[in-house]
Amino acid sequence: MTMTLLSPEHSVVVSRERRARVVVLASGSGSNFAALADAAADGSAPFAVRGLIYNVAGAGVAARASARGIPARLIAHQGFRSREEFDDAVVAALREMEAEWVAMAGWMRIATTRLLEAFAGRILNLHPSLLPSFRGLRAVEQALAAGVKISGCTVHAVVPAVDEGPIVGQAAVPVLEGDDAASLGARIHAAEHLLYPMALARAIAAAG
Amino acid sequence: MTMTLLSPEHSVVVSRERRARVVVLASGSGSNFAALADAAADGSAPFAVRGLIYNVAGAGVAARASARGIPARLIAHQGFRSREEFDDAVVAALREMEAEWVAMAGWMRIATTRLLEAFAGRILNLHPSLLPSFRGLRAVEQALAAGVKISGCTVHAVVPAVDEGPIVGQAAVPVLEGDDAASLGARIHAAEHLLYPMALARAIAAAG
Question: In angstroms, what separates the C-alpha of B165 from chain A's closest C-alpha?
Fold first, then answer.
C-alpha cells in the first residue's frame, strides 16, 4: 500500500525549445511554488516557472523565489480599492512576465472576472480536499470533522465559483488514527507537491 | 502506484473461539457477500458469516450462499404492507440467525428505525463513492459526471439518513481516461471486496 494515490497521468512529450511559461500566484510559505519550480528546473516538465506574484509582504514564498533566481513581484492587496483593481494589477504583472499559464498555489484571494477572462482556461488552482467534498476554507478541518478515512487534494481549472471548475488531477492520502489538522495537512501538502507539477503538465498537454 | 488506496487498518487480534456472528443483507449478485464469506472462511477474520437475507427471488447472491453452505432466507418485500412490517420480518430472521452484526451489501431497501434500533451501531453499509461525495443512487454515474479523477467506496455505520453515519473505512481508486459506469463500477467493486472485510473487522474490534 502506498501512502498516496495519484490520478493517472499520460506521458507528456516535452519540447525543450517550447515550454509553457507559468507564473505562480501565492500568499504563503510557497512549498507548492517550490515543487513547481523544481519540477520545471529538472528539464522534464513541459513548463518553465517564469515568475512569482505574491500579495503578503514577507511571505516565505518570496525567499524561495529569490533562492531559485525566479523574478518575484509583491502586489499587496491592501493598496487597492476593489478586488477588480487588484486583479487588474495582477493581470498587468502576469503580462509583463509573459505568462501563458497561471498556477495558484495557496493564493488567498478570490479571483474576479478580470483575471479569469484574461487567462480563461489557463488558470489552475490547488485545493486540499478530494473535491467535490469539502469546498471552501479549512478543508482539512472539514475532512477531520466528517470522519473520512481518505482525503487528498485536487488541481482544477479556475472558474468564477469558488473551488469549482473542471478537475485536472487528484491525489488521495489516508487519514490516520490520531490525526489533527497539522498532521493531516502535512500529509496532504506532500501529496500536493507530487500532484501539482503532474496536473499542470497534463493541462498543458491537453490544451495543445 | 497501486490502483487502490485502502484506509489504514490496525491489526486485529482474532479469537477463533469467539468470532462475531454476521448476517449479510443483499439484493443482487452478491460479490460483496462472497468477499465477506470468503474472508471469514479463511479463519483470519474476527467474524463468521452466519447467514444471508435477500429480498429478490433469484438474486445471484442466493446461489453464492448455497455454494458456501451458508443459510439463506428470502424475504420478498412485495409481501409486506409497509417498510416497517418488512423490517420486522428482517429483524425476526436476523434474531433467528443469532446475528450480532448486520452487513448490508447491495441491500436495495431503505432501513427503518425497526431495523436500526434492533441492531443500533451494529449495522454497516457499503456505498460506491468516497463519501461525503456522491450520496444516493447512481453514485458511479455521479462521479463520472463530476469529472473526478479519484473515486472509491465507503463502509459506514447505518443511521436513519441515507448514506450517512460514521465512516468505518474507505478505499480510493483512479478514474481512468475513457471510463464509463461499467468500467469504473467494476474497479470500485474490486476495491469494495478488499475494503469490506477489513472495515467490518475494524468495526468489531472498535466495539470491543
Answer: 10
